[in-house]
Specification:
alpha+beta; D-amino Acid Aminotransferase, Chain A, domain 1; about 25% helix; L-valine-2-oxoglutarate transaminase activity; D-amino Acid Aminotransferase, Chain A, domain 2
């Protein structure tokens, strides 16, 4: 077991505090996901070939010109992270280093200048510390952190921008899905694809998500929570779900799609695989066809399906639909593997389970 990092937060960045906190207007007992925002945000500007000095300011509008690159060509990237109130009252920002690495990889793919890790980390810690009263204490709630960067140069030709803005905004959230932690229903959409090798499927960038909105809309109209994406070439290998990576328990082994450049390298996905290894639970990354999945279900060898992600943590899957055929697993509750993973990961979040590998950054 690695030792948990306890961080003394330096006041690296100047702070302009809000004069009108909205904290008292928030109903923390009835939080949804992504519609409430904390009092402050972090701002960092790139110009003259370097990142300037960042600052923390009150949450509010961001002014950009209508000719800004991001509005026309989508040169931007973002990340999704969480902070939790621990049992002893301290705040845990989960796996900052891994989220920074993924964010940096996304920026590199879109030719956006790298933000120094020390700047990224210190900005997160100082902002969360300032708004620590916004971190919910409930086990099923958290403070969601959204770092994002976008190109701001005023130019309508297609080229790499020379100016950027980086922000971090935060907000208290409840469960991601309306089902809460109950099983969700998925459907494939063979007429649509999410990503191809060599594209940006493994980067957290706006276009990936914008292109998935229409198929997701169709899926929801049909009574499903999300799309289960298949590969773009053969349209038969399972890749990921719209907002999470996907796992199956087949013959007692936890299986998930490999990182071949078309799916997002989820931080929670990584946590799941590392916990399975720690527990001695067989786990593998391999190509899984939708036909194999249905065959395993018919033969009684598929016993669980669940998704993983920062937003959803662990989300059980109760139904999978594909071309008129349906897999029906437990539609009422999590299976034993998903339940153990959910209990352990949320326990690590809140300090009731031991940190296995220095995942927690305590402030």
């Amino acid at each position: 077991m690695s030792e948990t990092k306890v961080t003394a937060v330096d006041q690296t960045f100047p702070v302009k505090k809000t004069t009108a906190s909205r904290l008292q207007s928030v109903n923390f007992s009835d939080l949804r996901f992504g519609d409430v925002f904390s009092d402050h945000m972090f701002e960092l500007i790139y110009e003259n070939n370097s990142w300037q000095k960042g600052k923390i300011i009150p949450y509010g509008p961001v002014n950009i010109m209508p000719s800004a690159n991001i509005l026309h060509y989508g040169q931007g990237a973002f990340e999704g992270m969480k902070a939790f109130t621990m049992e002893n009252g301290e705040i845990n920002v989960f796996r900052i280093h891994d989220h920074y690495n993924r964010f940096n990889d996304s920026c590199k793919r879109l030719n956006i200048p790298s933000i120094p890790e020390e700047t990224f980390t210190q900005a997160i810690l100082q902002l969360v510390d300032l708004d620590r009263e916004w971190v919910p204490s409930d086990k099923y709630k958290s403070l969601y952190l959204r770092p994002f960067v976008f190109a701001t140069e005023e130019f309508l030709g297609l080229k790499t921008s020379t100016t950027y803005r980086f922000y971090i905004i935060t907000g208290p959230v409840g469960n991601y899905y309306r089902e809460g932690i109950n099983p969700v229903k998925l459907t494939t959409m063979p007429d649509y694809v999410r990503a191809v090798k060599g594209g940006v499927g493994n980067a957290k960038v706006p276009g990936n998500y914008a292109a998935s909105l229409y198929p997701a809309h169709v899926a929801m109209q049909q009574g499903y929570s999300q799309v289960l994406w298949l590969d773009a070439i053969e349209r038969k290998y399972v890749e990921e779900v719209g907002a999470m990576n996907i796992f199956f328990v087949i013959d007692g082994k936890v299986s998930t799609s490999p990182l071949t450049g078309t799916i997002l390298p989820g931080v929670t996905r990584r946590s799941v695989l590392e916990l399975c290894k720690l527990w001695g639970l067989p786990a593998e990354e391999r190509m899984i066809s939708i036909d194999e999945l249905f065959a395993a279900y018919r033969e009684g060898r598929l016993t669980e399906a669940f998704g993983s992600g920062t937003a959803a943590v662990i989300s059980p899957v109760g139904v999978i639909h594909h071309k008129g055929e349906v897999i029906t697993l437990d539609t009422e509750k999590m299976g034993p593997v998903a339940e153990r993973l959910y209990a352990t990961i949320t326990g690590i979040h809140h300090g009731t389970e031991e940190d296995p590998a220095g995942w927690c950054n305590i402030i």
